[in-house]
Design goal:
Blueprint lengths: L1 H14 L19 E2 L5 H16 L2 E10 L5 H14 L3 E2 L4 E3 L2 E8 L3 E10 L4 E11 L1
Antiparallel strand pairs: 1-2, 2-7, 3-5, 4-5, 5-6, 6-7
Helix pairs in contact: 1-2
Length: 139
Amino acid sequence: MQYMVQILVMVMLVLGASGCGQPPPPPIPVYPEAVPVQGENLVANALRDALLKEQQAQGLTATSQVYTIPRNHSFEDVQAFYTEAMEAAGWQRDTLQVPVPDGGIAGWTRGETHAFVVMVLRDPLNNQTLLLTVEAQRE
């Protein structure tokens, strides 16, 4: 599990380029059928806590959300949804590819100050499919 957090942190650092002067982006849509994780979920809480700590250390303002998605939805489904939505809103797809067993990571940037990353992975403790989203801004 720790290596997944490190991979996502690496992606955030690559995408969180410094810069200034761009207006805030429009709200990013939530993936259809995504349900926010409620209550105790060891994997989701560990991911969220590690990401927020690392983002603060890097000087990023960020929000992280963790959702469950139906098991028959793949990383490719999530990536296709966000590619269409993000490009329509003026975001650029990042070409960095990071393998994740039973999932994947994709990222987009908007200008030099905004980044958005999605990560899909299987929760090994309860066999749910998790969707983690991170929206970050460097001020």
